[in-house]
Protein 1
Amino acid sequence: MKGYHYFVIIVGSLVMIYDIVRRTFQHQRRLLLLSINTEIG
């Protein structure tokens, strides 16, 4: 039962980290697209 508890904690942490990384990546990509558009325009 203890191992299961640790498993839940690890999975929760991974999901949280993945969510943060995904949000950061989307934000960076938006900035990148904006900079590319301003250079072209």
Protein 2
Amino acid sequence: MSDFQNSSSNDIKASTNPLEDESGWEQEQLPVTEPSDGQNEQGPESDDEIGAESNKDEDREQESRFKDGQILRFVKVRFSGNAKAFPFYIGKRQFQYGQTVVAMSDRGMMVGYINSFPYEKVFEKSLHPIRSIARVATPEDIKQQDDFIIKEKESERICLELIERYKLDMVLTHVEYTQFGKKAVFFFTAPARVDFRDLVKELVGRLRMRIELRQISLRDRAAAIGGIGVCGLQTCCSSFLSAYGNVSIKMAKNQNLALVPSKLNGVCGQIKCCIKYEDEVYAEKRSRLPRENSFIQTKNGDFGKVLQLTILEEQFEMLTDKGIIRNYSGDMFDSQLAAPVGKKFPESFEFVTRDTGPMITLATCLNLLPQYLPKVAVPAPVEATEEVEEEVETGTEYDADEADLDSDKDNDENEDDDDAASDQDIASEVHHPAAAPTGPAPRPVPQSPAPSPLSEKEQEQERKKQKERALQRFKKRTKRR
């Protein structure tokens, strides 16, 4: 606020006491009772006196309660119409996000809501003053706050009428009732200095309460009113952002944004706040990528000129010295890898082609330089044990049995009516068990590992088993007939 407005605001505070009547004399003031919590009947004289007294008391209390290096628990509380969330000490008390509480704001005791989860901080003298939450808001506090909203709308309507009457070059943003309805704060924006002394006197006469006019910036106006950004979400300044910082065009260039006002400006007409707090992420990712229009050599030996960067995906597009445009991942760039000495980039190409294959990455590239090849540990060979051999043999025998049963089913379905031929087949199976059965070819059997050579005793046992299986098949066929 300008010097002219500061001097006028001092005059305003001296002439806007609600206890002063129209005749000009002032009634006897009652002393402010302790503690000064903004809830006594007469109300505090001014917010400055409350802040001075409360800060002194809190400083004395904190010097005795807290020590340097002690870990404290805080939450942030946001008040309606205020763009900034204030930290409050909670100690061992538990609060939930979004819970309504009563606490001392920069404009007096107000109803606000918890705007963060509990977090810890090491105590230092620079944290003074440390404020505490007075209490959890009761239904009466919330109802009173709702009643104040109705009165604020009426006060806003009166102020707009007076601004139009006095033809003041100012835009009223909103009105807030503080000190439990004992004071009204009018927030406005203006391009230049405004003489609003006549306006304040008129407001005092009609509202009969202390009046304060406070000039704010366009960002504060957007944070107090709220709105929806171009991204479709609630504006950052009215939801979670507590400090705006300085936003510059250099940050927009660093993020490859189009330098068009309609793209850069937010709903308040200023450069978007998200460009500020997102710039750190872009700066970190850009540090791992080459500069645009620079000549580099990638880890796979390609030499060329960088055409375009995709910062969030950490990718870049490069025109090689062979006239091929390719996409590379960020891990293919190494700032310490210098370009080959004496190698020049061609001034022109007969034709330029674009590689439509997959993006070249460090993991999938086959022509990496030797120093960047990953070291792969070769596993030791596993020696076969006797248990593994036994399992292989057992599996082979099981598969042979299954193959025999399948061939029996096929033979039964396609069995010939000629008894002599069937008897001849059965006799051949009894005397020559190793011979293949007649009929349609059996289904292919999945190949299994070759068994180890058997001894003579094991071969004799195998032949006996085959004979027994042949006799069982013969008995089954005779029963069916």
